[in-house]
Amino acid sequence: MNSKIIIISTAVMLFASFVFLAAVEKKKMDINNHDVWMLYFVDPKSDSLDFVIENHSEIRTFHWEILSNKKKLTEGDIASEKGETKKIPVSSENTEGKKITITVTGEESKKEIYKNL
Amino acid sequence: MFQFMSSQLFFFAAMLLVFFIPGFLLLKALRFGRYFSLLEFFTVSFAASVGITDFVMIILGKTGIVITKISLLSSILILSAACAIIIFIRRKKNPGSEKAKDDGFSKRSTVAILLLIFLTIFIKTLYLENSIAPTSTDLGHHMYWSKQIAITGELPIYEKTNIQEDFTISQPEPMADFIIGEHLLFAAIAVLSGANFISSFPSLILFLIHIMSVIAIFLLAREAFKKSENRDIIAITALFFIGPLYALASPQAKYVSGGVVGNIIGNFLIPLSVFLFIKAFSEKKPRILALAIFSVLIMAYTHHLSTFIFLFISLFTAIAFIALNLKTLRQDIKEVLRMFFSREIIAIVIFALISVFFLYTPTYMNKEAVDVAVGTPIKSTRTGLTMEQLKMTAGEARFVFAFFGLVFLLFTRHLGKYNQAFAVGWLAAIMMMSLKPQWLFVDIPTNRIASYVVFPTSVISAFMLVSVFHAIKDSDKRRSYLKNSFLLSTFFIFLVFLSIDGLRDNSLALSSDPMKTIKKSSETYAASRYLSEHSSENDMILKDHNYLSGDSWIKLFFMRGYNYPLSRGYFKRYEDELKPREQCTNLMISLPKSNDAEKCYAGTKTNFIMINPNNDAAQFNRIKNFWQVYSSDEVGIFYKSY
User: Fold this and answer.
1) What is the per-residue pLDDT across B175-234, written as a single tens digit (0 to 9) for each?
2) Which of A56, A85, A95, B296 is the 20 to 30 Å CA partner of B415?
3) CA B210 to the chain's CA centroid
């Protein structure tokens, strides 16, 4: 009888612990809870310069600039909610032989990616 | 919310099917119920379920049946249903013929056990709350193989590629580092429940097995000191020393979050096997001995180090038995041989031989792997610990008591000859392997062996402490030159000393800050997802192990081979004179412009580099044909445009 109580109580305690830990893990591994954002090219291998801002932070507006050999070609702002992925198309005309850098600023943080075409 | 609840429901259902139902029903059908109390039977059937799941999956894989949800579920259910029918028919014929043994727990003992189990689970949960996220290196490596079983439905072929001297990548070569039993259980849960490998589920499985090992220690202590009038107090004290005290340090909760799969399973199967052997020999029951051998067989299919250590435990137990029972040795040997030549043992040995030689031979059973583990150790990490280091590994206070307990055990009578021999042999074997491995020709990292010492020290220190307590109680009856109050306060000082040492050990493990690692790891996984969607098998990726978090899990996003992506390991590994290794993975990140690095890039066809931009971006920014194509706080990806 006492064995039964021990087994059932242990099972209940473990069940509660497991559900709690699974919920904690789910919350902690949700990237939206880590205040990060990413910048990347839509196609990393080709000459395409289209890029993506993937936002998991509290930042709502990003400013982007496109530079050719450090000279600004164009710029713009884009609004993005947490969890949103925004794709920005960029023309590849007249970029051959140049280093094209995409710089994105969100509040205090800044990231850049580039291709040497 | 609904998705979370349904995933939990499937997960728990899968755990019941894998860890509880088949073993419970099979052992009941084979009439093992009458030998054990309910708690013992529950623990033994957990191990049997692990073994059954392993063998069912191996048989499915070897007979060419794809391991899917349907094939696995139906195999387990058919086996379980067959056992249930046998039990049902037998019960109808002889109702009440298979009552479990009375556990003999008093109400007070039950309350103490429950309280200690609650504290154990609570403290470990508190620790795991911060480390439950899947980020640990070992677990990532193991889950690659489990995921491979789950997605291919076949048994894995343990092989990996290497970078050769001509800088090219070799064909896959066999590797003996992993054993199938470490991966089948996780694959089974994932196949049955659909659980994602990059989640808490692998750690939760390890946590479950770990708690079962704590219960196994409790049962073992109870069995080992069965003839003592303080049997339950010793077992409860052992539970206190292995449960709430020293609950987090290696090889306890830290091994759970660290994903040290083989050790965690081995740490359950070793005490359970010792428990079964003691019970079989002392009750002279060949059927229980057969179960003990089955438990060792599961161990052999799960973890080579645990099996290796168990062999030494058996050897030292035999020596201790001979030394302690010289007068009755001839008769004892006759008894043991009679048990070994029973039909149950012959049947299980034949099953084991067929399994190992015809069904599936564990990967480490080859000359090279044996040569690696056996020999005179040279490396400083393998030449043994000092007594001081071993003391710290075992927990200072616990070790002191166990050390005196070992000596005390040798001179204690009426414990039962097998019980005494196993208790002495278990601790003596691990102490000797840890302190003087060269005497036994053991060539394995000593700290890995020493981690096993916590289990026998918990049991024997409990025996020692309770013996002191018992002596104090008895001093009432005898004339003692020391005052009773003095002895009692000494006992409580010992207890406080042990508790403070054990709890301090816990607090040290709780003090780390895990959120940074989880944030970094989730960035690594996001980058891996991006790269897996934008690369093919023709691309070769190199990632860094030094500055990326959770990087061993990256391969689960690709499933393109165990060594895919290539990895820059710890820097010290490239300078190991005893084990020279390829330099390409280091050069391609550290000095990408060097001539050798260029050859490495050409030979391995590496075109993506994944690094931490805070440490390694500068050298790539200066080279024209490297494009930075991905940027986040902790991960940068470069593409080499040839």
Assistant:
1) 888 899 999 999 999 999 999 999 999 999 999 999 999 999 999 999 999 988 889 999
2) B296
3) 8
Output the six-digit token pair for B555: 């391969």
What ipTM score was computed for the predicted complex, to two decimals? 0.94
Query: Three-state SS for B134?
Result: coil
B37 and chain A in contact, CB less than 8 A: yes
**CB A113 to CB B8 under 8 A?**
no
Asked whether B395 and B501 are in contact (CB, 8 A), the reply is yes
Rounded Cα distance, B302 and B178, in Å: 9
The answer to whether B304 touches B373, Cβ cutoff 8 Å, is yes
In a domain, B154, yes or no: no
Co-location of B406 and B262 in the same domain: yes
For residues B462 and B377, membership in a common domain is answered with yes
Cβ-in-10-Å burial (0-12, 13-18, 19+) of B401 comes to buried
Question: How many domains are contained in chain B?
Answer: 3
Q: Which of B255, B248, B303 is nearest to B126 (CA)?
A: B248
* pLDDT tens-digit readout, B252-281: 788 888 889 999 999 999 999 999 999 999
Answer yes or no: do B125 and A15 touch at CB < 8 A.
Answer: no
Q: In this complex, is the C-beta atom of A116 within 8 Å of any C-beta atom belonging to chain B?
A: yes
Whether B454 is in a domain gets the answer yes
Convert A3-35 to b/e letters by CB count within 10 Å (16 or more is b): bebbbeebeebbeebbbebbebbbebbebeebe
Task: Tell me the C-alpha distance between B570 and B574, whole Å.
Answer: 8
Of B12, B100, B523, the CB nearest to A36: B523
Residues A4 and A57 grouped into a single domain: no
A61 touches chain B (CB under 8 A): no
Q: Which two tokens stand for residue B308?
A: 């290796």
Chain A and chain B share a number of CB contacts under 8 A equal to 154
Q: Based on the domain organization, do B504 and B557 belong to the same domain?
A: no
Report DSSP state, residue B170.
P
B16 touches chain A (CB under 8 A): no
CB-nearest partner of B200 from A22, A34, A38: A22
Instruction: Verify that A23 and A51 share a domain, yes or no.
Output: no
Indicate yes or no: pTM above 0.90.
yes
Alpha-carbon distances of B505 from B79, B245, B251, B508, rounded to whole Å: 45, 8, 12, 5
Specify whether A44 is located in the same domain as A83.
yes
Residue with tokens 């479990």: B100
Model confidence at B497: pLDDT above 80:
no
A 10 A CB-CB count for B404 gives 16
Contacts of A40 in chain B (CB under 8 A): 530, 629-631, 637
Rounded Cα–Cα distance for residues B179 and B185 (Å): 12
DSSP B568: E
Residue B373's domain spans which residues? 105-133+200-510
Rounding to the nearest 10 degrees, give the CA dihedral for residues B6, B12, B18, B19: 170
The per-residue b/e assignment along B214-248, b for 16 or more CB within 10 angstroms, e otherwise, is: bbbbbbbbbbbbbebebbbbbbbbbbbbbbbbbbb
